[in-house]
Amino acid sequence: MRILIMAAGSRGDVVPYTGVGARLRAAGHEVTLATHAPYARAAADAGLAFRPLPADPRGGDARDGTGEGEGTGEDEGAGGSGGASGGGGSAPRGRRALLRTASAFVGRLGQGMADAAEPGTDLLLLSTTTAPLGWHIAEALEAPSLGLYLQPTAPTGDFPPVVGGIRSLGRWGNRAAGRLALRVVDRIHADAARDLRRRLGLPAAGARAVRGAREAARWPVLHGFSQALVPRPRDWRTGLEVTGNWWPHLPADAALPAELADFLAAGPPPVFVGFGSMGGGAGERLSELAARALRDAGVRGVVQAGWAGLAAHGDDVLTIGEVPHALLFPHVAAVVQHAGAGTAAAAARAGVPTVPVPVLADQPFWARRLATSGAATPPIPFAELTAERLTVAITTAVREPAPRSGAQRLARAMATEDGAGAVLRTVGALATAGG
């Protein structure tokens, strides 16, 4: 089959699909990844063809509410979409400004997706961020499509909406809030959907109506996170499944940089500190907090620069650039992170405890999930982060047995899951059904 995967947002929204694509390619499918130009190399490394989508996700506009999950951007794992703030996860702007910025971005994204789609595509695989636009393209191509989501976006009584759902409202209230969240997404996509349908020669239909038709048809959606962290909601309809995480493709010859490998070998396991695409404009403050907390906790540290440009120096601290978390995390004592879905999953996979410092969007959701599972210390909201609180949390994560035990228990459960294999089986069933 000729398969086109469409994914948009920051790194964590995109790189999980390189692992899925590589698995499909190994099974004999012809796979293309349509995404932003900075991820062309990741697609090539996985053996996938590449088609560009507009916007540089580091410029801010690719990170403003582009999809249903509005999550995070991080280096590994399940990922999330870019969140509802510009400037690399800085303080949220006004609601109206966000909606305007988001609507403008999805308009450009929709036109770029139309450019990337080609007749002859046998199957579209649509991410959380691209599905509300991809439905129209699939209709125009008369091609089947499948949702590959990185967040649980369908309304459920089990928990409130992943984005903005601070506390449970009870089963009825959670479902109502979930439906309202989807209406906001449809509002953001209304103009883009209208323009896209006009360009594609499709009859007029509102974004909400198209979503309703997909739901009525029981459009299949696979979710790339672990059942051990988020069990499949018991009130979800048929066709919504949870597969386990989709991991970024890792080349067979991938290795840690020599400087990092030497640092790891020179002493006890360090504590990792990184905020991925979050913390824009706060790099100096975060660097100072991290350096002080690591020193006061009496631990070595590896600080990842990320989009905020963190930097810490000293005999017991090393600052690094982009490094696959799958290679690094098994060698650390704990992970201080923004609790983006991908980084959270990568830490859990490695069996190391997390100190979650959620910034925005879906990060509080994943932080709570990690803490509830026993794999993390209580979350510290980014706005409330101090060196003292971070020191206490790092000390707890490193010295107390409970967080490590919880993380190892979660890692064992995740090791039994094969998320990419579930995608492959579903694609095979669609191919068989299509004759």
Brief summary of the model shown:
The protein is about 45% helix and about 10% strand. It is α/β, with parallel strands linked by helices and about 425 residues long.
Overall 3D form: globular
Ranges where pLDDT stays below 50 over 5 or more residues in a row are 60-92
Structural class of the helix and strand makeup?
Answer: alpha/beta
Number of self-contained structural domains: 2
Architecture of the largest domain in CATH?
3-Layer(aba) Sandwich
CATH superfamily of the largest domain: Glycogen Phosphorylase B
Find the count of extended strands (DSSP E, 2+ residues): 12
Amount of helix: 40-55%
- Proportion of residues in extended strands: 5-15%
Largest sheet: 7 strands, parallel
CATH class of the largest domain: Alpha Beta
CATH topology of the largest domain: Rossmann fold
What does this structure look like?
By secondary structure, the chain is α/β, with parallel strands linked by helices. It folds into two domains: 2-245 and 417-433, Rossmann fold (3-Layer(aba) Sandwich); 258-414, Rossmann fold (3-Layer(aba) Sandwich), CATH 3.40.50.2000. 43% of the residues lie in helices and 11% in strands. It has 15 helices and twelve strands. It has helices at residues 11-14, 16-26, 40-45, 95-116, 131-141, 170-200, 207-216, 258-265, 283-297, 325-328, 341-350, 363-373, 387-399, 401-414, 419-433; strands spanning 2-6, 30-36, 49-53, 123-126, 145-149, 221-223, 240-242, 271-273, 301-304, 317-320, 334-337, 354-356. Strands 3-2-1-4-5-6-7 form a seven-stranded parallel sheet, with helices on both faces. A five-stranded parallel sheet has the order 10-9-8-11-12, with helices on both faces. α11 (341-350) links the parallel β11 and β12. α2 crosses α15 and α9 crosses α13 (387-399). The longest helix is centred in the middle third of the chain and has 31 residues, at 170-200. The chain starts with a strand and ends with a helix.
